[in-house]
Amino acid sequence: MKHRLIFIMLIGIILAVPACANPAQKHLEQGNAYFDQKQWDEAIDEYSQTIELNQSLALAYNKRGQAYAAKEDWEAALSDLNEALELDPKLIEAYSHRASIYHAQQQWDMAIADLNKAIELDPELAVAYSNRGWTYAGKGQFEQALADLNKAIELDPELDEAYYNRGLVHSSQGNWDMCIADLSKVIELDPNNFTVYNDRGSAYTNTGQLDAAIADLNKAIELNPSYAMAYYNRGLVYKEQGQWDPAISDLNKAIELEPTLAVVRQKLAEAYAERGYDYRIKGQWDSAIADLTKAIELNPYLAFAYANRGTTYNAQGQWDLALADMNKAIELEPDYISAYSNRAYTYINIGQLDEAIADYNKAIELDPSYALAYYNRGVVYFNKGQADLAIADLNKTIALSDDPDLVAAARERIAEIQRRK
Question: Which residues contact 62 (CB under 8 A, 6 or more apart)?
Fold first, then answer.
């Protein structure tokens, strides 16, 4: 799963002021108080009043720029941060914050240029290396990313964000053990970081450690019961385990929390379809059709759901419904081999033997080793009185199949045909 980029923001310096602070300083202090409470509009208003009283105060522009950035008003944020740096070219925080905006806009080179300047001004600034490392990762330059993140950790072994970013870089490269080690370090440093439990749970999933994944995702949900991504990921683990009920419950919860996440709806459709398949295999036709219909409702392009619902209708002798579903499955996936085979079965039962043969031909064209298709086509040829073609297909079945029951059935059919000649 693709993770949201983590970019560390430097905290603006709040200067100590004497009791007889001037009006501009009072507005700056009040703005900082609002900023700390994430009351962005109120903070912006106070910083604006600061600037009206003192237009040369770089810190006010810097902080107002941060507040605009928090509101994702990038144009206003960049304007203020540019002004802050015009007034004070050595204001490290402004370079870092401007870099974070460029990062959000995927303007990687401009972000790196600002972080280079921050590091030039303070070569021991661990967070700048961490931020630049994550920016290199955004560019896909993983070697440089790891070098910077390693440097950040060397400078500050307690910088949890650097371990986090390095863990995600390892994740993007499929280095799961290293990813898990870094995310475990983040949890050691910050045990209440629910996103890290989610990400480590995903890493455990990718290494097949599903029980460990469930434990981490449970913890993420315990820490933040409204975290849709953790429900989504736990639902995928349950789906992988074939635990359809909890999988469907979690995926429904993820949609409830984040209705716009299309990928969750797709996975929920798959879970319903796979549970429907299980019901079909067990002969629970009504439950199968209910789940497969729900899957189609969630994702009208899921060929697997149409094919399995069609197969279920076949089992119930509802030939028209079966044929409609098989047609749709093949329309969506023209190379869907089992859909051709199952549609052929439908055609046989409504007496359209030529259409059945055409579908078996297509199934065999797509998979020349499909022994069952040869057997079924041989049976159709036999029913059409085309004995030689039937025997050829049944012999092909015997040559291809490692299923002793199918081989025995083919031999019995051949013997029957030869007796009737």
Answer: 12, 80, 81, 84, 91, 93, 94, 97
Residue-by-residue DSSP string for 63-115: HHHHHHHHTT-HHHHHHHHHHHHHH-TT-HHHHHHHHHHHHHTT-HHHHHHHH
Three-state secondary structure call for residue 237: helix
What gap in Å lies between CA 137 and CA 403, rounded to an integer? 51
Q: What is the pLDDT of residue 6?
A: 40
Sequence-separated (6 or more) residues with CB below 8 Å from residue 68: 40, 44, 74, 76, 77, 80
Work out the angle between the directed axes of helices 23-36 and 40-53 (0-180°, nearest 10).
160
Residue 3 predicted with pLDDT over 70: no
Closest CA relative to residue 12, chosen from 51, 53, 75, 60: 60
Q: Evaluate if residue 18 carries a pLDDT over 70.
A: no
In terms of phi and psi (left: phi > 0; alpha: psi -120 to 50; beta: otherwise), the region of 417 is alpha
Distances (CA, A) of 138 to 81, 112, 168, 179, 203: 23, 11, 11, 17, 20
Output the pTM of the full model.
0.78
Give backbone dihedrals phi and psi of 20, rounded to 5 degrees, phi first: -100, 45
Q: 345 vs 288, 303, 333, 384, 403, CA distance in Å?
A: 19, 18, 18, 15, 20
Output phi, psi for 275, to 5 deg: -65, -40
Residue 50 burial by CB count (10 A; 0-12/13-18/19+): exposed, middle or buried? Answer: buried
Classify residue 198 by its DSSP letter.
H
